[in-house]
């Protein structure tokens, strides 16, 4: 391929410490037969050190991997740029370097090509946003747009010394416009053969039907380590199978808990090691899960978020976020609702599921965590799909979560208030609505379902039926449901004593004159311990000979705290005293500060 050559014996005698030989070999993935890759392994160690140990990752220049699913409906193609060499006779073989800065270097080179050729400014944004390492993925509204963009990209990359090869598309017209050597299947008969299947970024895509499908091959697993490896191999950036795979993640967490939880009879079983066999009950659950995955072979998920019959300029698009939680897991699913001339279509955009934290939380807290998980997902797709911030609705079946988001109160536990602010920074409280649990598609993400239940018409993939109707048919409640006061976690302010007024007069021994009273600032500077400070300040407000009671000591400490607060946060205290919000440049902005009735911050 021109990337490597045989060394001469004289070249092996390089200076010690200056030459590093990187081993390489040919690797072929079972999922991509006939497409071997030449791998340079920079992770290989010699004398307990490898090349990667001496390299930096570099800045993050890659695009978001979630942007692999287009909302345009005519065509999509996948392509890989490669540098041709004098011995390039195997177009399906490409080099791969397991090197830490490789992704950054790949993205930098592509962007540098754009900078060197400003006449291709029309495709510059595509280079920056549509490449994920060496994979280009895009979709177009029309065949003509796809052909023109493909041609411009090929020209630009060729100027940089690259050939955009291994190209695949769902549009035969685009394939016909490409040289056979640059197609993923050069021998394909475009007129007679069905478009082939391609696998990229953890997804299997059928070009003929323009849909994703799933063929999961799970190896036998009898230990915790093998289960972890198998669960990690079920990879899907869109989360189409999240309602199914969450059951395996919960099982893995249960395996970790073996030996950590005390049994009802008081026994604590031995901890389960990574290479120890699973207990019989967990092994049975795992085997049942693996057997059920066979039914997913029939599942098909459309690639395009907008039906082909919906013109882009005549379609109204809104995103609908659903979130839910149980004591075992929490999840969020995002749907795109497209409406064109009275016809409505609903497609799953992405879904996320997480196991509940090992440290047990209340159900209302988990519901709030699910809402935050959904808000983060919504934020990313509002940016990726370039939709206005108001073109969405958020749904939750938790009355407490809706109460928190709509409440103007700030006296909540830090766990609640911090997550509330993060959610509201993405979606205002006016965009949150209540949905009954039986109509919430995220309910399956928090409890898990059998793989045989997951069909194209299932609610977790097809969305709730009410979104296919007019807005007047949707659940109309925005809040105001029955909340659990004890679960709201309202922090009650601590009542403090009246502010201490310093009126003491210190007389001289002769009693003939008086000195200015000692200031609290002087006492603070001269005190060496907190106990001495409290007693000195409290003594200023006590009558001569009066015993220093706990209330006086507490009031003295409050005086010192108030003085220190005024010194450090004078502008914040003045703003809050006038009923205004503190400035965004204040270090206290994210802490939701307030003044209590006694003026303490």
Query: So, the CATH homologous superfamily of the largest domain?
Result: Ribonuclease H-like superfamily/Ribonuclease H
CATH architecture of the largest domain: 2-Layer Sandwich
Overall tally of domains: 4
- DSSP helix fraction: 25-40%
User: What's the end-to-end separation, in Å?
Assistant: 69 Å
The gross shape turns out to be globular
Find the count of extended strands (DSSP E, 2+ residues).
Answer: 20
Indicate the proportion of strand residues.
15-25%
pLDDT < 50 stretches: 85-94, 494-516
Strand order of the largest sheet: 16-15-14-17-18
What's the number of helices?
16
How would a textbook summarize the main sheet? 5 strands, mixed
- Average pLDDT: 80
Gyration radius from CA atoms, angstroms: 32 Å
Q: Any idea of the CATH topology of the largest domain?
A: Nucleotidyltransferase, domain 5
> Helix- and strand-based class?
alpha+beta
Output the CATH class name of the largest domain: Alpha Beta
